[in-house]
Write a structure and sequence with these properties.
single chain, 745 residues, alpha+beta, Jelly Rolls, 5-stranded antiparallel beta sheet, 4-stranded antiparallel beta sheet, 23 helices, 22 strands, 41% helix
Length: 745
Amino acid sequence: MRDYQSAIGNRQSAIGKLVDSLLASPHFGERWGRHWLDVVRYAESLTLRGFVMKEAWRYRDYVINSFNSDKPYDRFLREQVAGDLLPHESIAQRQQQLIATTFLTLGNTNLEEQEKKQLEMDVVDEQLDTIGKAFLAQTIGCARCHDHKFDPIPTRDYYALAGILKSSKTLEHSNVSKWLEFPLPLPPTEGKQFTAHEQAVAKLEASIKAAKESANTAVAKKATLPSGALAAKVLTGIVVDDAQAKKVGAWTSSRSTKTFIGDGYLHDDNAGKGSKSLTFQPDGLKAGKYEVRLAYSPGKGRADNTPVTVFSADGEKLIRVDQRNDPPIEGRFVSLGQFRFEQNGAGFVIVGTEGTKGHVTADAVQFVPVEKLAEVATTTDAAKKDKPDTSESLKKLEAELKKLEASGPKRPMFMSVKEENPGDTQIHVRGSVQNLGAKVPRGFLQVASHGPAPAIPAKESGRRELGEWLSNRDNPLTARVFVNRAWTWLFGTGLVRSPDNFGTTGDIPTHPELLDHLAMRFMDEGWSTKKLVRELVLSRAYQQASGGLVGPQLAAGLAADPENKLLWHASRRKLDAESIRDTVLQVSGQLDLAQGGPLLKPGTSADYGYKHTDTRRSVYSPVLRNSLPELFEAFDFADPSLVVGKRSDSTVAPQALFMMNHPWVMEQSQAAAQKLLAEKLADDRARIARAYRLVLGRVPTDGEITLALKFLPADSSASETAKRTEAWGRFYQALFASVDFRYLN
């Protein structure tokens, strides 16, 4: 008995040393970081137009580094929710905290939504749904339109939390809105080169601006009316002045600013919003494609979301114009886009007031044939006629600026959110931004709060306090949810089998006392992921086999607990997509173990048709929502638009067909064969054993060796080397396609 106990002790000691070495490996963070990326819907592009988020990779590296450094989970959580608001002791720490908040920006949002208030609430809803499921395993998003149907989450709690997230800016609005990017803070020594380059660019931009102003001054002397306004006749295309517009409601004519066209411009008086409009309809418009431009008078008191609708042969399109900003085209016009018009067709532009708060202004609408855009037939044309030297000088300056921007160092950027206009939010009745109810103070879920909640300062968003509330050890959910995730990732199935839903519609814990015990230990031991993993993998439950039981024992177990909820054996598990890819690359000798950094091909502006050719570990492969690697799609990769605590576990024909027919599998199999044949091994038996060890992690049986020898050609002359390599490649492919390879026992 003593010898038996000693042997068991030695075995456990050896396993413990192995576990410690694996936990210390930099590949631990890659494996566990990928688990977390599933939960936070990590991706590097949007479905909409395939927009590529070129800085998203920094968040991926932050996650991997956090798991490798065993960052306490409570700290890890707070940094993702409010890293930009937390104190820091170094530039490096500040960088990591800022990058962590990329978590809030990764949602797959429809940036083309023209109702920007709706878009903002959709973004908040997506953030709130992700936070609720990822950290609390609660379906908070269900309370957007009404009190939660199953869980004690009233609509007031939803909008209390929504007010926190809405108090931070996530998008820069335009016709197609854009996520926010900011310069990454750098140590003074590293920032000098960027500062010098930016100063040189700014100097050139100032020179260009001065040259343009000089050209425009020349035009103004020639082409202005006595009032100082620009004459419409000097503009290219067809110009419909405000005096020609069809008015609905009361509009006031003004000449306060001096950049107007014709006799003045119009503005509303903020009364009767939604009932006023201006229709600009051109006469003599020929069939063709035109760029449509709106001239307006900017100012701080102007509307930031003026609705402008273009009616063309392409249909009806609504564009929102922020009239607080100076018009980008010569200080007069903003482009509404390019549209196709038919001759004598119903083409016109309507400037409305619905949903606006500031003054709406309208000066003129210009229809410029696209073939004449290159002529720059605007005020600059007249300047060219009067001052050709200025025009040539401007061209040289712009060429110099383009060259400087292309050759200069690029300051590192990161995706994040920005504190802006903090305040409470009104309940949106039935989720509608047009039907507002009572205002709700910012706060947290009442059902998950014990004791007084953190107070939210009036001039802050409350994200910092949200992070504190989520990571408070008195929060009954946070530690339990993460412990259950860790159990799911290790065992294949959680103690709660619905890891993203601890609510009424989710599964109840199979071992509630164990879950509570592990959650308390997790917090007591400093929220350490590595300590938690070590404890779980050294347990008897984890070290069980998936087979071995036969006869009455197996029959009794299956009868009593067919789903293995009581953990009487290990469950057989499928190899995930990344493990399949990485193993194939490792066996073929192609796997690149370099860590971190961007992997998108230079010049990628959209993800459609992207060709995945890298050989890095799969955690670094670009996650593109419109162009996932085919292997990922076949083998149940997590949907990068959703919170996925447990991936689908399908067994379908396309998986086997992929391994049998895909060119990538064939190429890697041939590379593996070449690598094997180049090794100095005694004979084909040794080669077969080596291949089995590499692919399946075990030695072949005598029957498998005999079968392989029948298939493989014997050693032959150099003239038949290619034929022999091809045969060994097919042998490797058969191993890769086998059930033994795709399942873990």
